[in-house]
């Protein structure tokens, strides 16, 4: 996926990428993949300590297995739940057959007691949470949200509070982006050449285009607040005997630029 994104130059567009790290191995990520402004969402170090039941100021060990640690907490929570029920004398000692109904209601009562005790145990552990509607247990990580560099934090995100931005950060809307097909047709659109008839290129190595249509496109982009890149083609296109279009029309028809 990274290779494809680089080939298509998607990583060169500011604010187009949001990278979410599901582990604590951010330091080994190759940030040279992108030269644009990328949003990084990383798990706070504090969450690692809570996941391992360590002090807040712990140093998160390398190669921590997030899911395995999560499962360990769930197993401990289940064990504590059954222990609480046992201490209250609420022990389910009746054999239950899935093919028969709960005629005496014992299973329903035990289910209610179990869920109540289980939620209490879960709520006592800040690193995990319980969704009463779906009855799912989830990891209650806290995330840092940074722009451009992991040190440039612009906010935090958590399940209970959602996204909380830094007071100094101003959210700017991401401009729309378009790929604009272009072919030479003087004076509407043409490649800029020097006195030796060589096509001039910009600092990024892209051919420089000019003409009435290009001026109009630049003005549209400014007024309508969008960015674009030119997709050159040798011709506007003709329809082949087999019904397939070539050139720009072919690009529009297939969505592929050859």
Automatic annotation (TrEMBL):
Domain Ionotropic glutamate receptor L-glutamate and glycine-binding: 187-254
Membrane-topology annotation of the record: Multi-pass membrane protein
SUPFAM superfamilies noted in UniProt: Periplasmic binding protein-like II (SSF53850)
GO molecular function: ligand-gated monoatomic ion channel activity
Signal peptide: none
Keyword Transmembrane: yes
InterPro entries hit by this protein: Glu/Gly-bd
Coiled coil stretches, renumbered: none
Main location: membrane
Keywords: Glycoprotein, Ion channel, Ion transport, Ligand-gated ion channel, Membrane, Receptor, Transmembrane, Transmembrane helix, Transport
Entries under Pfam families matching the protein: Lig_chan-Glu_bd
Localization: Membrane
Gene Ontology cellular component list: membrane
Protein name: Ionotropic glutamate receptor L-glutamate and glycine-binding domain-containing protein
Species name: Clastoptera arizonana
């Amino acid at each position: 996926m990274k290779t494809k994104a680089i080939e298509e130059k998607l990583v060169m567009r500011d604010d187009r990428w949001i990278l979410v790290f599901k582990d604590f191995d951010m330091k080994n990520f190759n940030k040279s993949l992108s030269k644009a402004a990328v949003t990084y969402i990383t798990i706070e170090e504090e969450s690692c300590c809570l996941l391992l039941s360590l002090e807040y100021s712990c140093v998160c060990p390398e190669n921590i297995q997030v899911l395995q640690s999560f499962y360990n907490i769930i197993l401990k929570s289940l064990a504590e739940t059954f222990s609480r029920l046992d201490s209250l004398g609420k022990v389910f000692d009746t054999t239950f057959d899935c093919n028969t109904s709960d005629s005496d209601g014992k299973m329903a009562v035990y289910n209610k007691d179990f869920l109540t005790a289980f939620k209490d145990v879960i709520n006592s552990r800040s690193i995990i949470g319980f969704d009463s509607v779906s009855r799912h247990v989830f990891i209650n990580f806290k995330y840092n949200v940074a722009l451009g560099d992991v040190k440039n934090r612009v906010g935090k995100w958590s399940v209970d509070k959602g996204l909380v931005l830094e007071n100094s950060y101003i959210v700017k809307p991401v401009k729309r982006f378009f790929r604009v097909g272009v072919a030479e047709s003087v004076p509407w659109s043409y490649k800029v050449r020097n006195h030796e008839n060589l096509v001039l290129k910009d600092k990024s190595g892209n051919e420089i285009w000019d003409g009435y249509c290009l001026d109009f496109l630049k003005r549209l982009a400014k007024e309508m607040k969008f960015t674009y890149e030119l997709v050159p083609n040798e011709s506007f296109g003709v329809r082949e005997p087999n019904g397939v279009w070539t050139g720009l029309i072919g690009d529009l028809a297939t969505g592929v630029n050859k």
